[in-house]
Amino acid sequence: MPLFEFTCPHCGESREVLSRAADAAPAPNCPGCGRLMTRRWSPVAAIGLGSTGCAAPRGGFS
Ligand SMILES: [Zn+2]
Questions:
Q1: In angstroms, what is the span from residue 29 Cα to ligand 1's centroid?
Q2: Distances in Å between the alpha carbon of 54 and those of 42, 44, 57?
Q3: pTM score, two decimals?
Q4: What architecture is domain 3-43?
Q5: Per-residue pLDDT for 15 more than 60?
Q6: Which residues surround ligand 1, an ion (CB under 5 A)?
Q7: What is the rounded CA–CA span in Å between residue 39 and residue 6?
Q8: SS3 46
Q9: CB 10, CB 35: distance < 8 Å
């Protein structure tokens, strides 16, 4: 079953929802503020790969 991740645009809460449908999952209500959450499109494959874009400063800034 596909796993969808929803985030609340109002308070930033996130929640994962298992759906039987391949491409459709009903948006749940936010457990924090009760409003409708929106689906987040963030494939897991995008995490952990080396980035060639702008380098974020590490450490510093104190
Ligand atoms: Zn919320």
A1: 8
A2: 19, 21, 9
A3: 0.56
A4: Roll (2.30)
A5: yes
A6: 8, 10-11, 13, 30, 32-33
A7: 4
A8: helix
A9: yes
